[in-house]
Amino acid sequence: MSDELKLDVALLRRKVPNLTTAARSVGLRPATVSNLCTGKIPVGRAEVRTLVALASLAGCKVDDLLIKGSGVGMIETGIKVLDLFAPLVRGGTVGFVARPGMGQFVLLPEIFYRLKQRGFVTVYVKPERELQGSEEIYTETDVICQNVQEACEQIETLRIDKDVILCIDRSVVLSGELFDIQDQLHDPGARPVTYAIVDFQGESVEEDAPYGPLETLWRFDMELVTRKMYPAIDPVMSTSTILEGAHLETTHLTVQQKAKKMLRRYRELRHIVNAWGIEKLPDTDKTIYHRGEKLEAFLTQPFYVAEAYTKKKGEWLKVSETLEDIRLIIDGKADESPLEKLQYLGRLNEVSR
C-alpha cells in the first residue's frame, strides 16, 4: 500500500505566515489552499502547478512540502508479523503487552532503529526504576527525558520538521497522565505524535484491557519465547484498529484474515499433535498443520539491533513482499521447503539459495 500524502501544513505556515494573501498573489484561490491544508482536497487531486506555487512560496521543493503516511495510516516497520497482523498507526498509540524477558526490550529499540530510517525522531521517557537492557534503548533514542513534561517541551520543537515516536511507561496510563500529554501535544496543524506504551513491570499480561483504548496492541507469546521464535508477537491476539477501517488494501486484509484463520486452526491442531502425534489428524488437517507450522516459522525475523548476538543480518520486508510470500505459503507453494530453512528468513525465495 502506498503512503497517503498530505501537505506539511506546519512547514507551510511557518514559511508563509500570511498564507491566504500570499496564495492570492501567485494566482491561487484561497479556498483551494485552505481545503488542501485541511485535507478536504486530497493532495493526489491537486494540480501540479498548485503544489509548485506553494513550494515556491515556502522556498522549498515540492517533495519537502509533502508528508508521507500522514493522517490515519499505517507506518511500515518492515517487520513481517507486525505489518501483516497489527500495523502501527501513525499518530496512534501502541501498547506492548509482555512479561519481563519476552523480548519487548529488543523490539522497542528495533522499532526505534527502523523508524529513524524513515525520518522519525525517537523520544524516550526514563521510568522511575532503571531497567536491565536499557542500554539498547538508549542507543536508538534521539532524546532521553527524565519526565513527560520535559518530553512534551522537546517534542513541540522536534516535530516541526519530523514525525515523533514517544515511548513512555504504562504508569502514565494508570495515572491518567496520558490524556494530559495527548491534549498538550494535540495540534491539527502539526505532525502527529505516535505513542509507544511499554509495561516495564510486566503486570499488564494479567488484564483484559491493559491499556484502555489503543490503536495497536502487540501481545507477546510465551510459547514462542520458549521455542526461541522472535519477535515473539502473538499473530492471533495482536491487533490494530487500522484493520477495522478502509485504510488497507483489500489484498492486505484478505491475506491477513486467511493467515490468522490458518494460524488459529494450526494452534488447535498443535495441542493434538503434541499429545497424540500427527497420525491422529485427518489428511486435510495435516495439510493445515504443516502449512501453519511453516507460516509461523516464516514470521520469525532477524533484527538489526541483535546482529551482534545472532550473527544474522537484519531484514527489512516491504508489506507487498510479505503479502506475496505469506500468500504463497497459504496456497501450498512452500510445502516442499524444509521447515528449519524458513526460520529467520527474509524473502521466501531465499530458501533455495
- Which whole number gives the mean pLDDT? 88
Compute the separation of the termini in Å.
28 Å
| SSE arrangement, N to C | EHHHHEEHEEHEHEHEHHEEHEHHHHH
Large-scale geometry: globular
Q: If strands are numbered along the chain, what order do they take across the biggest sheet?
A: 7-6-8-9-5-10-11
Structural class: alpha/beta
Q: Could you name the ranges where pLDDT drops below 50 across 5 or more consecutive residues?
A: none
What is the strand tally?
11
Q: What percentage of amino acids are in beta strands? A: 5-15%
Relative helix content: 40-55%
**Could you give a short account of the major beta sheet?**
7 strands, mixed
**What's the number of helices?**
16
* Rg measurement, Å: 22 Å
Overall description:
With 353 residues, the protein is of the alpha/beta class. The chain is built from 16 helices and 11 strands. It has helices at 9-15, 19-25, 30-38, 48-58, 80-85, 104-117, 134-139, 148-158, 171-174, 177-185, 222-226, 250-276, 283-298, 307-310, 319-330, 339-342, and strands at 5-7, 66-68, 74-75, 88-89, 93-97, 121-125, 143-145, 164-169, 193-198, 216-219, 239-240. The strands form 3 sheets. The protein has a 7-stranded mixed β-sheet with strand order 7-6-8-9-5-10-11, with helices on both faces. It has a two-stranded antiparallel ribbon with strand order 1-2. Strands 3-4 form a two-stranded antiparallel sheet. It is globular. It starts with a strand and ends in an 11-residue tail after the last helix. The model has no long low-confidence stretch (mean pLDDT 88).
